[in-house]
Each structure stands twice: as structure tokens, then as C-alpha cells.
Amino acid sequence: MAQLPNNLAIIDTVEIQQVQATMNKISQFQQVIQKTLHQGHDFGIIPGTDKPTLLKPGAEKILMMMGLQSEFEIVDSTRDFEKGFFQYQVRCKLFKGDMLITEGLGSCNTRERKYLKMDPYTMDNTVLKMAKKRALVDAALLVASLSDVFTQDLEDMDISGRPIDKQKVYTDQDSTISKAQAKRMFALAKGNAEIVKQVLDDYGYERSSEVEKVKYDEVCKDIELMAQKLEQAQGDEAQTQTDGKLQDGRKED
């Protein structure tokens, strides 16, 4: 097989105008992404990093914009119930119709710092989902040429959507909230478990015990806001029913 003598020879084969047009399209697409995605939901900011971190909702929006479908494959796994160790390595394939466009890789295991204090036997599904999220983000960054806009690998760390200079600093950033803090979330929801479940789902949590401390205030704020909206809607409905009864009473008179 013939080989080009050096890198310069490869450059000589490139159509400069075509490259320039492609680079312009990439730049335009990056601008659209930055204007469309929302901080605190689609991407977050981690103290000490120079780029925002792309989150799962943001990655999913990027794939929708590009008309791509994702497919996941477990490349390797360990499920040691005797030692309580679980790990998964996942490949995310992105397709345009039947054509494979690119792939991303992600892994997660129960010996990561954020899981060390948790019961490993309850984390099997959690680390699998986290590996899938990391693979998805990796694939999205590759296919959309967004590595210079967003970072990866930190996708699931403790993230606050607020600017770095307004973030609260915790000495145990990797730990999760206490039982008392979890109870407060239900209190803010006025005992409505469905509100808590919906907000936790929005943040990618399956249960309240998974909520990280650095995201606790943000989660509580969303729960409280949703509870207020529901209470307002119920009040409006009750008022409508009362007004209807008054009108019926006047008609009878």
C-alpha cells in the first residue's frame, strides 16, 4: 500500500475552500448549540474547570438537532456479588438512518469516590446508567465537534448551574444529602411524592438518597416552585367551581 511521504503531502491533497466551508459550518453550529442549551439543565459549570460540562439532556438535544439515533452496547462488565463490586464499560453508537456515524465510550464502577459511602449492592443499575450517560456525552461531543466548547468526563460530578463565583463551597462535594434533607424536599412538596419524583427525574436521580449536596438547593428550589404552581392551579380550579355554583344559584333565583 502506497504511503504519502509526510504530513505536508497530506495537506497538499486537501481542498482548502472545502475545509474553510466546513470550518465555517462547524463554527455556526457551535453558536447555535451555545444559544439553544440552557445552563443548569443541559450543561453545568464546575469550579476549577475552564469549560462548561455537557450533561445528558444537552447531549440528547444535540442528537435530536442532528437527526441521530443512539444505540448502546455493553463492552465489558463485572458483577461481583461476593465482593460487592460492579463496573460497566459501554459503547454508544450514533446512527443516521442505517449509517453508523461515530461512537463514544463511557465507564463507571462502584469504587468511584462518589459511590464509596453507598451500599454497592444497590448501585448496580446506577453505575450502568452512569456509564451509558458518559458514553452518550462522549459520542455527542465527537459528532458535533464540540470538544472545544464543552468538556466531558466530569458529566456526572457535583454541578451547580450558577456561575462559579456564586457557587457554595462544600468540603465534601462528593457526598449526598442526609435523611433530614431528603425529608425537607418532601415537606417543600407538601407531601406530594409525585412532585419530588418528577424533579428528581429531571436531574437524573432515581431516589432522593442520590442527590448530591451541591445540587440540593437547586433541587429544592425546583420542588418548591412546582408545588406552588400546583397549589395555584388547584386554587384556580376551586375558584372556578365556586363561581359556577354562584351563577347557578342566581339563575334559580
List the helices and strands and how they pair.
Elements lengths: L6 H6 L3 H21 L6 E2 L8 E2 L1 H11 L2 E12 L4 E12 L2 E11 L14 H20 L35 H10 L4 H10 L10 H40 L1
Antiparallel strand pairs: 1-2, 3-4, 4-5
List keywords for this structure.
253 residues; 3-stranded antiparallel beta sheet; 7 helices; 5 strands; two-stranded antiparallel ribbon; alpha+beta
Gross geometry: extended
Which percent bin holds the helix content?
40-55%
Which series of helices and strands comes N to C? HHEEHEEEHHHH
In what range is the share of β-strand residues? 15-25%
User: Which secondary-structure class do the elements indicate?
Assistant: alpha+beta
What topology, given as strand order, has the largest sheet? 3-4-5
Number of domains: 2
Spatial gap, N to C terminus: 99 Å
Question: Whole-number average pLDDT?
Answer: 79
What is the number of helical segments per DSSP (H or I, 4+ residues)?
A: 7
**Largest sheet properties:** 3 strands, antiparallel
Low confidence ranges: 153-174
- Rounded to an integer in angstroms, the radius of gyration calculated over CA atoms is 24 Å
Number of strands: 5
Structure description:
The longest helix has 40 residues, at 213-252. α3 (56-66) crosses α4 (124-143), α5 (179-188) runs parallel beside α7 and α6 (193-202) packs across α7. The chain has 7 helices and 5 strands, in the order ααββαβββαααα. A hairpin with a 4-residue loop joins β3 and β4 (85-96). It has 2 domains: 37-161, no CATH class; 175-253. It starts with 6 loop residues before the first helix and ends with a helix. The protein is extended and about 90 Å long. The chain has helices at 7-12, 16-36, 56-66, 124-143, 179-188, 193-202, 213-252; strands at residues 43-44, 53-54, 69-80, 85-96, 99-109. Helices cover 47% and strands 15% of the residues. The strands form 2 sheets. The protein has a 3-stranded antiparallel β-sheet with strand order 3-4-5. With 253 residues, it is of the alpha+beta class.
